[in-house]
Design the sequence.
């Protein structure tokens, strides 16, 4: 079997992102480097063949997902439980945790001006944040950080993909421009592997 | 880069545009705001107020008006958060009224801390927009298992740990269906006349008849009714007399009516022969 075929079979059968080392377990002679090469080759092949799916990089893993231009067709099956869009409170809290981690509950509440214990509990239950340590202060408060699942939920490869505070105004200007565009097709939401 | 791409999700609110834009800034629905900072920032941005020179008296009044409506319906904790901000605003307002040097360092401005918090909050609102966009983009990609499985019929959810042998074995335990019961529907009901002739035939062999013999072998209510009416009719015609020693004791029919019994025997049968014509037709009995 060619390495590409083994990697393709493994990715095809998985419902979650797989790291290169997880994929490499499929065959004794498969190295993580070979897996990376195979993913790159598959991606180019899918692109050339205009497949309806592509290999995307989410967190530190890879997953076969449909291309965004097929969303309108697939959304017709929307009777399925999907991860729901997050509430404003959840997004606010995640934004603060993502940029300030590790961060305690009190500090989150100071930024938001409102309580954060219940939303932190929800985000912990959803595995979007996790306790990453304890602070030095009184009572050694729990410190929170974002998870791999957080990256997967937002289609991010890593946290560096979030704009820095300096980049933020530029990115936002881009978003507002995009919002006026009707055609969303060129979107490549989850970071395309190797891009 | 995922953030530089457009999306069809337009639900999020770009910075500076509030869902209440164009609406009087006083008329705000508190439910739409995450908290007091969100509301305050909205009041400032919606009126194009310079955030580094907030007219505290003006903003405080608007803030108080905005929360006055919704405060009663709020959970205590949330109400407390808004009230705390209202108190802070009043405190800043008071501090501004105190005499102070002409030139004030920004650090000494009582508003400085509030402005810092507002700007920080606004920064994270921007991040929220970025995350919302990323989330919407991610939502346009679908992985394995998204399209639902063919739904199983209700009641089939439990695991089926059964093979064909089990099924056949279970099937073999089902008893043979019993042979169909033949039900004979009576083509006609029994008539009183038939009972009358039965009584006459029995009297040819015996002087007395147990009343039950007239209907018990058939076991139906129609036979009992017909027998009863026949006995009454024949008693009226002096063909027989009915005797019962005490309530619920067996009823006996004796050949010959009461008249015959008192006058002597011999007349009864003649009477009976006369009356038989009437009694032979069902329903002919007089009430």
Sequence:
């Amino acid at each position: 079997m060619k390495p590409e075929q083994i990697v393709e079979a493994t990715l095809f059968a998985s419902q979650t992102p797989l790291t290169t080392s997880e994929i490499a377990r499929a065959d004794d002679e498969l190295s993580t480097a070979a897996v990376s090469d195979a993913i790159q080759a598959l991606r180019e092949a899918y692109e050339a063949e205009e497949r309806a799916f592509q290999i995307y990089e989410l967190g530190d893993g890879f997953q076969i997902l449909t291309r965004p231009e097929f969303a309108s067709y697939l959304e017709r099956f929307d009777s399925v439980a999907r991860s729901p869009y997050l509430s404003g409170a959840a997004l606010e809290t995640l934004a603060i945790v993502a940029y300030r981690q590790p961060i305690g509950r009190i500090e989150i509440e100071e930024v938001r001006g409102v309580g954060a214990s219940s939303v932190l509990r929800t985000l912990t239950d959803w595995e979007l944040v996790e306790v990453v340590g304890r602070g030095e202060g009184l009572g050694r408060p729990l410190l929170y950080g974002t998870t791999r699942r957080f990256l997967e939920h937002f289609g991010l490869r890593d946290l560096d993909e979030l704009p820095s505070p300096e980049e933020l105004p530029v990115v936002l200007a881009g978003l507002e421009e995009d919002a006026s565009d009707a055609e969303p097709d060129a979107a490549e939401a989850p970071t395309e592997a190797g891009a | 880069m995922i953030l530089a791409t457009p999306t069809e999700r337009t639900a999020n609110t770009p910075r500076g545009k509030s869902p209440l834009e164009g609406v009087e800034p006083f008329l705000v629905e508190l439910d739409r705001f995450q908290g007091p900072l969100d509301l305050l920032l909205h009041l400032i941005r919606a009126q194009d107020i310079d955030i580094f020179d907030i007219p505290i008296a003006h903003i405080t009044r608007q803030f108080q008006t905005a929360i006055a409506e919704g405060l009663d319906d709020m959970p205590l904790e949330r109400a407390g958060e808004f009230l705390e901000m209202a108190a802070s605003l009043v405190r800043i307002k008071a501090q501004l009224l105190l005499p102070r040097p002409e030139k004030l360092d920004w650090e000494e401005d009582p508003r400085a801390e509030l402005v810092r918090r507002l700007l920080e909050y606004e920064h994270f609102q921007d991040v929220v927009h970025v995350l919302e966009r990323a989330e919407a983009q991610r939502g346009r990609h679908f992985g394995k298992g998204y399209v639902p499985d063919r739904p199983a019929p209700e009641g089939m959810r439990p695991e089926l740990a059964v093979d064909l042998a089990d099924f056949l074995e279970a099937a073999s335990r089902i008893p043979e269906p019993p042979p169909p019961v033949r039900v004979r529907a009576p083509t006609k009901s029994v008539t009183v006349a038939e009972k009358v002739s039965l009584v006459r035939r029995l009297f040819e062999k015996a002087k007395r008849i147990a009343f039950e013999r007239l209907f018990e072998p058939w076991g139906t209510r129609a036979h009992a009714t017909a027998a009863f009416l026949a006995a009454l009719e024949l008693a009226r015609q002096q063909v027989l007399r009915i005797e019962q020693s005490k309530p619920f004791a067996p009823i006996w029919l004796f050949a010959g009516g009461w008249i015959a019994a008192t006058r002597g025997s011999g007349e009864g049968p003649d009477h009976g022969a006369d009356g038989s014509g009437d009694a032979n037709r069902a329903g002919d009995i007089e009430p």
Notes: The mean pLDDT of chain A is 86. Chain A is about 45% helix and 15% strand. The longest strand of chain A covers residues 53-58. The CA atoms of residues 44 and 140 of chain A lie 50 Å apart.
